[in-house]
Amino acid sequence: MLVTYIEAIRQAMDEEMDRDKNVVLLGEDVGLLGGAFKVSAGLLDKYGPDRVVDMPISESLIIGSGVGLAVQGMRPILEMQFIDFISCGFDQIVNSAATLRYRHGGQTACPIVIRGPSGGGVHGGLYHSQNPEAWFFHVPGLKIVAPSTAYDAKGLMKAAVRDDDPVIYFENKFLYRRIKEEIPPEEFVVPIGKAALRKEGGDLSVITYGSPVHAVMKAARDMAKEVDIEVIDLRTLLPLDMNAIRASVRKTGKALIVHEARQTGGIGAEIAARIAQECFEDLDGPVMRLGAREAHTPFAPAMEDYVLPNQEKIIEAIRTLAAY
Amino acid sequence: MLVTYIEAIRQAMDEEMDRDKNVVLLGEDVGLLGGAFKVSAGLLDKYGPDRVVDMPISESLIIGSGVGLAVQGMRPILEMQFIDFISCGFDQIVNSAATLRYRHGGQTACPIVIRGPSGGGVHGGLYHSQNPEAWFFHVPGLKIVAPSTAYDAKGLMKAAVRDDDPVIYFENKFLYRRIKEEIPPEEFVVPIGKAALRKEGGDLSVITYGSPVHAVMKAARDMAKEVDIEVIDLRTLLPLDMNAIRASVRKTGKALIVHEARQTGGIGAEIAARIAQECFEDLDGPVMRLGAREAHTPFAPAMEDYVLPNQEKIIEAIRTLAAY
Amino acid sequence: MTEQKDRELYYWLRLIREFEDRISAMDKQGKLMGGVYSGKGQEAVTVGFCHDLRWDDWIFPLHRDLGAFLVKGADPRRLMAQIFGKRDGFAKGKDSYLHGGDLGNGIFGATSMLAATLPVAAGMAFKFKIRKEDRVAIAFFGEGASSRGDVHEAMNFAGVHKLPVVFVCENNFYAYSTPNELQFGVDNVADRAAGYGFKGEVVNGNDLHAVMATARKAIDRARKGEGPTLVECKTYRYHGHSEHDRADYRTEEEVITWESRDPMILWEVYLEKKKYDVEAIRNETAERVRKAVDDAVAFAEGSPAPEGPEAMEDLYAMPIDTEAR
Amino acid sequence: MTEQKDRELYYWLRLIREFEDRISAMDKQGKLMGGVYSGKGQEAVTVGFCHDLRWDDWIFPLHRDLGAFLVKGADPRRLMAQIFGKRDGFAKGKDSYLHGGDLGNGIFGATSMLAATLPVAAGMAFKFKIRKEDRVAIAFFGEGASSRGDVHEAMNFAGVHKLPVVFVCENNFYAYSTPNELQFGVDNVADRAAGYGFKGEVVNGNDLHAVMATARKAIDRARKGEGPTLVECKTYRYHGHSEHDRADYRTEEEVITWESRDPMILWEVYLEKKKYDVEAIRNETAERVRKAVDDAVAFAEGSPAPEGPEAMEDLYAMPIDTEAR
Ligand SMILES: Cc1ncc(C[n+]2csc(CCOP(=O)(O)OP(=O)(O)O)c2C)c(N)n1
Ligand SMILES: Cc1ncc(C[n+]2csc(CCOP(=O)(O)OP(=O)(O)O)c2C)c(N)n1
Ligand SMILES: [Mg+2]
Ligand SMILES: [Mg+2]
Q1: Cβ-contact A108, A142 below 8 angstroms
Q2: CATH assignment at residue D156
Q3: If exposure means fewest CB atoms within 10 Å of the residue's CB, which of B179, C7, C227, D280 is most exposed?
Q4: Are the C-beta atoms of residues A60 and D188 closer than 8 Å to each other?
Q5: Atom 21 of ligand 2 has which residue's CA nearest to it?
Q6: Cis peptide before A239, with omega less than 30 degrees from 0?
């Protein structure tokens, strides 16, 4: 089956709703419109307004009500029309949902999925380009996934819906319709917590996730004669698959972490810090990072490009590290 | 003048309000009550209800209205009764305030101070013990300070009020009345962006901030015969004083970062990542970190102590690194 | 009402009172840690709303609603253990006071973030509605908390779908030190219901008869699918915001005035008018509640304090591979 | 009203219309990037509220209120440059559309987060009040945005202090695809004002006379310190939510009904009844606005695109030492 990234998400939601009547979808314009990006197209017709719910513009309510549904054994998928608006429901995530089980001494689970389009590169400007995963990475009780392929988009959505803990699912809107991929027609799930080794290599490990995975893979192919790159696509950000990261870095001795989110305080900082400590003896060069520059993601193309990582910057970073 | 940490904050606010009538204080119970911790005791009587404003329980409004005041040239100090409630005003900070100047192409400044009691160790449980600085560290446009002494508490509050950018000021409630210190009677300001070298040493750098500074200093004294520790108190978290950090690590060759906030995704991760990259050649041991364990800060004393860094864990971490 | 019910209601009022008093006393003696928020004086609200609920209805208590826990069926011994931060508390010591709910009895544990439970209650009520269950969710909040955006978002949603939820505003005239006139520009929070398309009612929150009558109407309406109600109960807390608060922001006269409207005393007057032997009832009930609270305290004292590493439990329902991390 | 003012108002309606139409056309031609939100059909609201404001009053436009920018005094050329993402935009290309305000003219640039401007407007109005300035803040928001908590928090605060702010709800019956009956459980958003202690008014937002009369009353009230007003303008957007939206969720019949209430046509009828030479006015105005928009487009096209490193400017007013970092 040849599917786009966005269709993969739609299929996963559809199949999970079909499989389990406790799965419901709540969000702004998810029903009548089928979502701002049409990710839920057709679901209202199929499952009706009790399970595909057009919500008022109230992100805090959307997430909070998801917690109430979850306590009742439902498995709500909660859409942020753009992931940027997650800031408006922040408290309900980090305090209400993330501590639900903990503060009840394990009496309940909190099987909610919070999802929405993230990322830049589409001239979305300051409020339609954000990559806010690091905020949630600092919060125990949450899980975070960020698929880069249609296969993973589908498989991780299924895993997220079936997971009993709150999962924040970062969709990458740049990839929505830009990648198209053959995926198996039969049911599959991609487990939360396992990175994918996208390419084996002996010289240098690039650890990445989300949309830069594709630029990194291209760099790895294009630079094949220069340097033998190993590419790890994290897929899950919390918990980190440190086994995969350590194994790779121990082999190559060099690590570059690439993500689109701002470099300072990004998830790459934690990964770099862990590598620097846990693989200290194995390192043949400094752990390097490439994230967005320290600015908001601006609208005008030249500035956006200046701020975000791109093919060129990735190649440059790889060369610098390889030359070390 | 012998003052407590909390009194130092009160004095700074008082003096700044006295100096500049554009300085106003908004928060819940800051007026009639003088603040839940009495940090604004007496200010309502002195400056009246137009400048010391008892706000409704609306954190988003408190911060948002601060932005409106700032655009009008006022310099609002915005209190969160506990810093934990900052999650309820999150969007107004990261989107409304942090991008105000940027999205207006430099037309305006945003001189607001957001402050409140943070930190654990007082059996405050999940919602009165938080250290959420890392969330804001990932947001350009903001500045962050976290004083550990009465002197800095006063001097940094003055700097924050006079700063034209949004400053988040993390008070440490554990220190409020536990430290008492001689401070100069005359006016002084502690510049934002400069770390303090609390103790010189040749063997190992401990980089820290907030309440652990005191435990680290005690360890440095107690372990003086074992290891010669250099202690850097960051004071400002954003921007980081990398000059101070680099200089110290280049000298000692070993770095331990200690903070009370959760280790994963904490500010220590960024510091470690930068040291690991920028001081790669200088390191005689892995960059190590000590932050809170990966849990919320629980109520029961043994669990709280298990989660948070303490004297014992600091000593242990120093020993491990020193022995490297 | 039957004599039995009359007496039972009296029992609950007194049990809560005894529980609150004991906690305050223990706090004074330094036996408790953390914040202690006495609901003394507000007992009629929680008794009135929780007494006739069914086991599978849900309540979302505010930080002062220890009474709601008790009346809805929480084991007093476990509640006391929770206040002690012990392992037998609903939160297993992870947090104290009312942050750990007793989910088996339909009691939700709130975070500290005021009014953050209202969206949760609305979501749960949405489930009752779509599954056609005739259950109700009761969401308590203070008049101070009414200023928070979450209240608005929840009420608006409840109005759109006519959800089986009752919003109960306990207006005790102060939010910490902040009086109503600095909290909102209206006389009654209940007036806001009209803006959401449902009914608002104001009731004397110290009058158990009145509270019960209003609660019954609102709960019936919800059960029948007729939508939410916002009930505002005017009441008063005798103590400060927390036990540390001397509450200098109010006058002694005001406190005395409210003490003269004490819900328990009013109920005794009612029992008297019904010609029961009030003296006997009072003594007998006092003895019962003393025993119940003694028992709870003894249990809580005997309950083990959690050990350090237990802090790492209950974070995830599907545990993550900590080895891998 | 004087003939001059009658004509001037017509000019503004048409200028906005021309501006919107041109932007839509350019968007179709692929000349624009990012989201384009046409306010075509809603011009009477922004003209009615902004025309008689003073220069030092403030407005907080919503994403569809390009007209508010123009009427309040923003240079059309800079506004167009902003929509092009050029350096001469108010945002210097940092963001497009209405995110960069023109602060020198009292026009605040909103984030995308709907209704997040309302607390900001309330805060500014608080300053007007404590400094005893007879200025007003006008905060526009959609009926969809009315569901957000920030609306409640801002209105509540404005009610407590009787702030000089006017809340203007542009109810165009849809929030993206979401119809009013899924957005709230009442007929009028304006009904909520009562719950905050101030006046709410509903007005035909396509009728410039009606809007101006209501605006005047509300603004006067604010200036005199009599507190806020919530004005709900019933209106309609002809286009989809953004130019990408085909708006299948509504009927052609409905669109036509509203086009028959077009604010510009209504105003022409008025001019006719006043016995002006409408044909002449129409032609002359059409020419004027065409020129103004041509000029703006030419300026915007000629304005330099920001270069990459400019992205690092305007983050801090007191720059941080990037060397040190
Ligand atoms: C979002 C949030 N802001 C501030 C606080 C701090 N706080 C705790 S209780 C309280 C007053 C609550 O007043 P009210 O809602 O009237 O309830 P009451 O205590 O009077 O029963 C405040 C401000 C909080 N818990 N949550
Ligand atoms: C907090 C937030 N949530 C969601 C969105 C996405 N969004 C943009 S416009 C819109 C609809 C707005 O409707 P309304 O407020 O009625 O204004 P209108 O577009 O009809 O003028 C939505 C949902 C947003 N911008 N902000
Ligand atoms: Mg109260
Ligand atoms: Mg609308």
Answers
A1: no
A2: 3.40.50.970
A3: D280
A4: no
A5: D142
A6: yes
Which chain C residues have a beta carbon less than 8 Å from that of D160?
181-185
**Given this model, what pLDDT does residue C306 score?**
98
DSSP string, C64-96: T-HHHHHHHT--HHHHHHHHTT-TTSTTTTSS-
Please give the residue range of the domain that contains residue C147. 3-304
Tell which residue, B162, B137, B177, has the closest CA to residue B5. B177
Indicate the number of domains in chain C: 1
CA of B80 to the centre of ligand 3 (A): 18
Tens of pLDDT, residues D6-48: 999 999 999 999 999 999 999 999 999 988 999 999 999 999 9
Nearest ligand 1 atom to the CA of C39 is: 21
Q: For the sheet containing D199-204, what is the strand order?
A: D58-60, D137-142, D165-171, D229-234, D199-204
Compare all CA atoms of chain B with the CA of D118 and give the residue at the minimum distance: B64
Query: Is residue C93 in some structural domain?
Result: yes
- Domain annotation for chain A: domains and CATH numbers: 2-182 (3.40.50.970), 196-322 (3.40.50.920)
Structural domain includes residue C319? no
Of C33, C94, C308, the CB nearest to B306: C308
Q: Is residue C125 part of a domain?
A: yes
Give the tokens for residue D133.
Answer: 């300035």
Reading the block at residue B132, the tokens are 């959420």
Question: Cβ of B300 and C93 within 8 Å?
Answer: yes
SS (H, E, C) B71-117: HCCCEEEEECCCHHHHHHHHHHHHHHHCCHHHHCCCCCCCCCEEEEE
* Chain B partners within 8 Å of D325 (Cβ): 239-240, 242
- At residue C33, the 3 state secondary structure works out as coil
Residue D112, ligand 2, Cβ within 6 A:
yes
Q: Do C159 and D185 touch (CB under 8 A)?
A: yes
First to last CA, chain C: 61
In Å, how far are A126, B110, D93, D174, D194 from B68, measured between CA atoms? Answer: 20, 9, 23, 29, 25
Report the relative pairing of strands D174-175 and D178-179 from DSSP bridges: antiparallel
Q: Which of C136, A295, A259, B40 is nearest to D313 (CA)?
A: A295
This model's pTM is above 0.80:
yes
Among candidates C112, C150, C318 on the partner chain, residue whose Cβ is nearest the Cβ of A164: C318
pLDDT digits (tens, 9 = 90+) for C210-267: 999 999 999 999 999 999 999 999 999 999 999 999 999 999 999 999 999 999 999 9
> Mutation test of ligand 2: which of D153, D241, D242 has the most ligand atoms closer than 8 Å to its C-beta?
D241
Quote the CA–CA distance of A135 and B137 in Å, as a whole number: 10
Angle between helices B59-71 and D149-161 (to 10 degrees): 70
Which residues have a beta carbon within 5 Å of ligand 4, which is an ion?
A: D 142-144, 172, 175
Record: contact D314-B95, CB cut-off 8 A: no
The H or E element that residue D127 is part of is helix D117-130
Of all residues in chain B, the one with the smallest CA distance to C242 is: B36
Round to whole Å and give the CA distance between C245 and B37. 10
Q: How far is residue C94's CA from residue A133's CA, in Å, rounded to a whole number?
A: 26
pLDDT tens per residue across span C160-182: 999 999 999 999 999 999 999 99
In a domain, C309, yes or no: no
Neighbours, chain C (3 or more CB pairs < 8 A): A, B, D
Is the Cβ pair D185, C191 closer than 8 Å?
no
Is the ipTM above a cut-off of 0.90? yes
The rounded distance, in Å, linking the Cα atoms of B115 and B82 is 9
Question: Is C183 within 8 Å of chain D by CB?
Answer: yes
Q: How far apart are CA B100 and CA C147, in angstroms?
A: 25
**Contact between B200 and B230 (Cβ < 8 Å):** yes
Residue D29: partners with Cβ closer than 8 Å, 6 or more residues away: none
Active site residue A104: no
